[in-house]
Design goal:
mainly alpha, 3-stranded mixed sheet, 11 helices, 6 strands
Length: 265
């Protein structure tokens, strides 16, 4: 009897070990070595992917894309050997934002079907333990977002164009960003996010403002050029709402974040 119990315990321990190692292992996306192109870097392939697989609400047809990933894979091949440091400022920003959004999609289809990026790896591992080749180096999504985009470009509006494949994220557009229109894109994405009552909601009776947790997680970023979140919001709200969020006694509450996959299915 004791031997049976011991065997069962060892089996259970083995199963638990396998599950632990699966969720905590680092996964690296490998690419065939190829020389960088001398042609100007183009986001045309990613633009085509978005037009073909993203609807007007920012939802992705992951089923279709997983079955036909050729254009996305070719774009990722370009990212792997690109030289973004040779680009001018806006083009560098566009490079890293498009790269981030494309790699999130890649991470999802590699583990699809799933209902949430939170289920791909435990403890936020989707963003910290999946690794991708970009510009001749290997990065996690967190390294791209926090170590490059937030650090080198220091613009709070980037939070509204970076899409983490979840329902509470900003919606994914169906066109790739371009250096020529990125300023307009940042303004439009920020305005649309702040004006969306699912992300920013005012309750005058209770003197409360309900906000996306993006404003909590990255509150320091909203002190870049502003005096904090309220001052930032005031720039994108109607005058009467702007006055309210800046008034004394208003309390800010953060909404629950919905990590459900932004899936058309």
């Amino acid at each position: 009897m004791k031997n049976r119990i011991l065997i069962v315990c060892l089996l259970l321990l083995s199963v638990c070990s396998v599950l632990f190692l699966y969720h905590f292992r680092v996964e690296a996306d490998s690419r065939i070595e190829q020389p960088p192109s001398e042609a100007p870097f183009s986001h045309e392939l990613f633009d085509q992917v978005l037009q073909e697989h993203v609807d007007g609400k920012g939802r992705v047809n992951y089923t279709k894309l997983k079955a036909n990933p050729e254009k996305l894979e070719r774009y990722l091949d370009l990212l792997a050997v690109a030289k973004p440091t040779e680009l001018f400022y806006n083009a560098q920003l566009v490079f890293w934002v498009n790269a981030y959004n494309a790699l999130v999609i890649k991470g999802v289809i590699d583990h699809y079907p799933t209902t949430s990026v939170r289920k791909v790896k435990w403890f936020n591992g989707f963003f910290s333990r999946l690794k991708f080749q970009v510009a001749g180096k290997t990065y996690t999504l967190n390294q791209i977002e926090h170590g490059i985009i937030r650090t080198e470009f220091a613009d709070p509006r980037v939070h509204f164009v970076l899409v983490c494949a979840s329902s509470s994220c900003p919606p994914l557009g169906n066109r790739a960003f371009s250096a020529e229109t990125i300023e307009e894109n940042l303004e439009t994405a920020t305005f649309n996010f702040v004006q969306n009552p699912e992300q920013v909601r005012i309750d005058r009776a209770k003197r409360r403002v309900y906000l996306s947790k993006i404003f909590k997680w990255y509150d320091d970023d909203f002190e870049i050029g502003y005096e904090g979140v309220a001052d930032f919001l005031a720039d994108y709200l109607p005058p009467e709402d702007a006055d309210f969020v800046l008034s004394e006694g208003v309390k800010f509450h953060h909404l629950d974040y919905d990590w459900t996959l932004n899936d058309q299915n």
